[in-house]
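Hi everyone, sorry if this is the wrong subforum. Our group has a chain we'd like a structural model of before ordering constructs, and none of us has done structure prediction before. Sequence below.
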Amino acid sequence: MTDIAARATRVVAAGGRRRHNGGGPRAGTIVAFVTPFFLPFVLFYLVPVAYAMWQSFRVVRRTGGQYGTSYTTFGGFHQYAQVLQNTEFWSSIGRIGLFGIVQVPVMLFVALIMALLLDSPLLKLKSFFRITAFMPYAVPGVIAAIMWSYLYSPQLSPVVDLLKGIGLQPDFLGPGAVLWSAANVSTWLWTGYNMLIMFSALQSIPQELYEAAKLDGAGNWAIAWKIKVPIIAPSIILTTVFSIIGTLQLYAEPAVLRQISSNISSTFTPNMLAYAVASGNNYQQAAAISVVIAVITFVLSFGFMRLTSKRAGL
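Answer:
Right subforum, don't worry. Here is the predicted structure as tokens:
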């Protein structure tokens, strides 16, 4: 009996060694799978970020007076101090903050309503409406801004002519409306994208929950707001975080509208300010602006995610 147990122990140990040596993943295989992602990630993301941060701590000095030579040296937090004292930077942050406070909730509410309608058994032709709602996302942001510029232009827009024909005098590019004209372009572009994320989450909910709710007397409205919306709360939080990040990165829409409106300056958004500063060959200042924008984006998105996750019990 002892010999049998000893032989069994040796067999098990040998099998374990074989599985460990031959059956487990090898380091070379892991590297081969990871490298196609990791190498571009390092080259095109980590390296540019590190270079921008390095540039943000440098300043340009000049020796020999007006006709002397210039050189770049370490300047500590000088560039960041300049950014924090720049009134144009804070004006652009305030403008984009107002944009996000209004545009993001409106866009996500519309996306949620569309997702609930697509998930409702009452709606017909769901595939058609799903593709139609998602189609604007397939249009590049610059092209979309150009399309809407045509609709906003007082000289070209058939919409403006139609509204004038009924006694209205719209000015979509006026100082009080141009920010919301850009917000409308962003809403048109991204509502379908956010709707698809929410709709995918709705599709994963077991149908048994709806059947049990109906047996308890719940109608479609109660099922939508008391069952569906709470369950897909993580998806709503995710789309909100994406929207916060996208808002602080806003560039294409106002940059295109600037070509037909004098009410959009080169510093209208933080990203436009960074580009304008870089265009003036002040790359160190532009790098500092970019880093500050990234920090603000991280704080707002991470803070929102932590706050809402705690309240939702996630």
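For your construct planning: The beta strands are 58-63, 69-74. The first strand starts at residue 58 and ends at 63.
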